[in-house]
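Figure-free illustration: sequence to structure, shown twice.
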Amino acid sequence: MVGNLSSLRVQNGWLLGFDGGEYGGGLWFANLDGKTQKLSGESVGENVHGFIETSQGVLVFVGLAHPGFDSGKVLVLPYVVNSKTDVKILTELDGAPRTFTKLSPDAVLVATTQGISRITSSGVKATLLYRSFGGLYPNSVVSTPDGTIYAGMWLFVVRLARRPGGYREEWLIPDSCRHFSVSGYDCNCAK
């Protein structure tokens, strides 16, 4: 149990998720008496990034992006946990999850190292944008009431505007900035 901790109270105890980056991670359960058991984390890339509660159960976002390795998936668990057999793979992701948000009782948005997807608690996945975000480190994703999606990341914000049949990708930069360059940790506009 190393790394960043995520926790969620369920009916009969606590889900504990750990993300130690390249040093590993995993999902644990602690019952109300304090007894713990490991639910997942035997294989590389099962670092827990967090939980979202849905009407179908708890979604657990796991994955790892490290040189030469980029993997992610969504696990689902019931609200009463008994053993590791309760852990099911809901869907595979196109890369490691970086950030996610709840859209409704049964749907979430997730930004991975490879784009943005909508996932339902029944396991239906729709890729909304396939784009390498690897070095941009998405750290927030939201949807407005009209369905426009924004993802904030290092240096940039991308907007997915609804259009018939899908979304239009728009990178938010000043209108006067036709070209840019990255210098260290700064984005410089070249007019």
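We now fold a second protein in the same way, so the two outputs can be compared directly.
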Amino acid sequence: MWHITSDAQISAGLRYDDWRAYDGGLGRLTTAAPIVPVFNSYASRHEDALSPTISGQVDLDGTLVQLSLAMATRFPTVGELFQGSLNGDGTFNINSFDPMLKPEKSRDANLLVRRDLGPVTLTGSVFYQRVEDTIFQYFGFNQNGFTSSTYKNIDLTRQWGVEAIAETKDWPVQGMNIEANAAWIDSKTLRNRANSAAEGVQFPRIPRWRINANMRYCVTENVQTSLGMRYASRPNTDLFGTQRGDTFGYTSELFALDARVNWDISAHFRLSAGVDNISNNRAWVFHPYPQRTFLLEAGWRL
């Protein structure tokens, strides 16, 4: 970090990754007599990458302006490389996994502006991300109705958006703190040579709108309450924007209210109770989100 002046500074960083995939293979039993194990081995892989980042910020008479730029590489996991699915006869579907998956490479930028207005702090940001070889998980069902998944590379995806954040402390009443944020995101597949029908379509599982809010209030010095809200608009479930629904197998709209109360009985002992998803809203991200959930917790702090 370099402090250019008391109100301006630049920070930079660099990450190095050394990645290997080795001793990978897939085993199965033959379907015809004699029943014997068959094992396919895959060649080892070794790659490395550098991920730089740089950020500069300046305080303009109480308004913080920050610009951050970064490049990053994410290598595939073992599950993404080798987690395949079965055919109807119980054999492995050789097209359901790809031991030669490429790493994701992203270029990111974020412009942030923050202003402290006494009890209220306002923050706005504009963000941009461009990812080459995005690793995407396809969901589906085989001929026997069993769930299957496949990981493949998408040539190029891009997302950008804006976010607004408001935070208050002891406002509008003493002891009450509020945090709220809303984000609009435009995420698209720009290039997919495997099937160009996905190009220009909103990328799956990323909602256009996200809104979150949380209000905390200290009833007494030892009793704190909170009320939270989560919302996400319904995104596409598949790359082509043809699968949209509010049931199992889809990614749906989400709205949930959460409430909680904490009681500090002593300096060491705390009791907590709460309800998540008070309205019992049904939502899915392929599998269902939890519905109304009651919580009761006790904690001892040394």
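Summary for the second example: Residues 225 and 261 are 4 Å apart (CA to CA).
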